[in-house]
Specification:
This protein is about 45% helix and about 10% strand. With about 220 residues, the chain is of the alpha/beta class. It has 2 domains: about 140 residues, 3-Layer(aba) Sandwich (Rossmann fold), CATH 3.40.50; about 70 residues, Putative phosphatase, domain 2 (DNA polymerase, domain 1), CATH 1.10.150. The radius of gyration is 17 Å and the shape is globular. The model has no long low-confidence stretch (mean pLDDT about 95).
């Protein structure tokens, strides 16, 4: 068992497409396309802002990405904008998440979230999903003003917990995030929910799972 099990938030614990699905009828036939563009631009803005050394709060990037998505998909009903942004503060977690986190806690593991999201955003999602008692710490990049996958983001965990990188098991649904954590020295678990092809072959994950259930072994112990 590892000293700490650290999770990415968006796409790993929380379903980033849940907001659009909840308002799909209002948005129209191209709701799924809008959601994909929204998510991709949100990530792109975090990378480019870090490269330019021009940090902005992740919530601002989320708003900007949604506005771009509406511009890119003019058939989508823009009047749903406010509802979508409200829904993003209360994203649903994936079905297995509470059970897996509880098993980790029962085994004595420390659990944390390491996220590009602001502390307020992530804590709101944790509360909405009823995970407060299952997550020990929320660590946000807002502390350092740079987004994943720069090494300083992952270093916050080792400094906070005063442990070496190889004592951390890091779980993310984003392959680029897994690559960054691998380069830093974490044990990495790629939660490949979408069945995406492999990339970053020089920085392979230690474990690939279809969902987080695979973190718990047959006897209920963490793997």
């Amino acid at each position: 068992m590892y000293s700490a099990y650290v999770f990415d938030a968006y796409g790993t614990l929380f379903d980033v497409h849940a907001a659009v699905r909840a308002h799909a009828n209002e948005i129209g036939d191209d709701a799924a396309q809008l959601s994909e563009i929204w998510r991709q631009k949100q990530l792109e803005y975090s990378w480019t802002r870090t490269l330019m050394d021009r940090y902005q709060d992740f919530w601002l990037l989320t708003e900007q990405a949604l506005d771009f998505a509406f511009d890119k998909v003019p058939s989508a009903n823009r009047s749903a904008r406010a509802a979508l942004l409200d829904a993003y503060w209360n994203l649903a977690c994936f079905p297995e998440v509470p059970k897996v986190l509880k098993a980790l806690k029962d085994a004595g593991a420390k659990t944390a979230i390491l996220s590009n999201g602001s502390t307020g955003m992530v804590e709101a999602a944790v509360t909405s999903a009823g995970l407060e008692s299952l997550i020990d710490d929320v660590v946000s990049v807002e502390r350092i003003g740079r987004f994943k996958a720069v090494p300083d983001v992952y270093r916050m965990i080792t400094e906070d917990y005063r442990i070496y990188p190889d004592a951390v098991s890091f779980q993310s649904s984003n392959r680029w995030d897994v690559a960054g954590a691998n380069a830093f020295g974490f044990r990495t678990v790629w939660c490949n929910r979408g069945g995406q092809p492999e990339e970053y072959r020089d920085l392979p994950p230690d474990l690939v799972l279809a969902d987080l259930n695979g973190l718990i072994g047959a006897k209920g112990q963490p793997v």
